[in-house]
Amino acid sequence: MDRGRDPDGDPDRGLTTVWVWGDQLDLRSAHLRGRDPGSTRVLMVVSERKLGERRWHRQKVHLVVTAMRRFADRLTEEGFAVDLRRAPSMRAGLAAHVDAFDPSEVVAMEPASRTGTSTLEGLGVRLVDNDHFLCHWSEFATFRAGRGRTTMEDFYRWRRRSTGWLMEGEEPVGGRWNLDADNREPPDAALAPTAAADPPVIDAPDGFDASLDDWLPEDLRLFGDGHDGTWATSREGALARLERFTTRVLPRFGDHQDAMVTGAWHLNHSLLSHALNLGLLHPREVIEAAVAAHTDGRAPLNAVEGFVRQVLGWREFLWGVYRTADAGYAQRNALDAQEPLPPAFTGAAPTAMRCVDDSITSVRQHAYAHHIQRLMVLANLATLAGVRPDAMTDWMHGSFIDAYDWVMVPNVIGMGTFADGGEVATKPYVSGGAYIDRMSLDYCRPCRYDRTKRTGEDACPFTTLYWDFLDRNRATLGANHRIGRAYANLDRLSDLDEVRTRAAQVRSMLSDGTL
Ligand code: SF4
Fold this sequence. Notes:
It is a single chain. This protein is of the alpha/beta class. The chain is built from 22 helices and nine strands. The chain has three domains: 16-128, 3-Layer(aba) Sandwich (Rossmann fold), CATH 3.40.50.620; 137-324, Serine Threonine Protein Phosphatase 5, Tetratricopeptide repeat (Alpha Horseshoe), CATH 1.25.40; 330-512, DNA Cyclobutane Dipyrimidine Photolyase, subunit A, domain 3 (Orthogonal Bundle). Strands 4-2-1-5-6 form a five-stranded parallel beta sheet, sandwiched between helices. A hairpin with a 2-residue loop joins β7 and β8 (171-172). The protein is globular.
């Protein structure tokens, strides 16, 4: 969009407009870096269509809109003229801005999402590459071209070599690329009290928090507990959270990374993904802070490598997969899963499954569940029961504080539900109750269900559904050598008919909200 500069000699008109999206809140990024405030106006749009497109967690709406407002304030302090407006849609916001200010050109950083990018392309906005990732998706595509199947591990090693992080010459520090095997310790009684001694940073509410409703339409579909200061809505808040993690929590992050304890919602997790995905932290500074903690002897290698793999490996790999996948990727359903979203997930029904109840409680209270609760409780149950993957994507997108289209689509379609047929994961991430019992301190023993049973009214739903899942999907999964042992065990079951019968009851109870 180029309309010619300053058409009427009005100093307020004819400036270049930089359109900053709600997850691009970084003065150092490609859209704002080096810009002269004297010749630049910043546009930010709070889109009513976006706010109305799904049921959102209250804390997510608070986070994004409040962080945008604080960033607009910061830009004003830097000398920029800022047009922060609420509009029926992004398109309408731009049209109103152009009417008001007649910019010479509108420039934006390429949105992380595909739909955002095509919206801006359709509006004629000049795009610059998104540099809020360390590996642009076009570079990812080049890396993948001609390699056939590429796993996250292939990508991660390439990125370690490219960046030099945790490297000694061509070899990984410590001699191993991936220390995941050291990070699967089951929880002990000391885990939760130790983690609770370093509580999350909490910001006291201020005028921005109090006036949020002025920016929201009245008919939003919101759920969950309200804002409590846990999530950073400013650069300063994000840096305080990075400092907390790298100095106090990271040393303990590794060993019990996959552990679960009732009521201990954050354990030793970083709680940084919301700030990374908003643009308040850049992945480079987060990784450098973690690597420095190891170099200085403040954090062990298994903790630092595990964390770096999440940011440098998984986060970037999934963005590359998402951006280079075909247009129908978000609708993939390789296992033909057609069950509705369980009402236990949305809070419309209670559940006696303690593992699910604790995970959903964490979502309701904090818009957060840690990665094993997401993958091995919630997505595991959805996959085993045959819940529609697109329904899971939509629910997780609206429920989690760090969720955006680019991160939820590959996480759910590729990782969580195996709906892409194996492009991201080499096998479905599914398990029966035994895994959840091993990795949780106190989920299974007090539970009304018995994790060792696969039939009967008190059988653990995960255990029943696990065998039924393998049985139902034999045609698609039976030749996958990574789960060959599971199929060998399935073939030894003498009660498969009873398992099938109980599994049908369990699926029905799950969708009725009576499980
Ligand atoms: Fe979850 Fe089954 Fe354990 Fe209950 S017994 S907490 S349903 S895994």
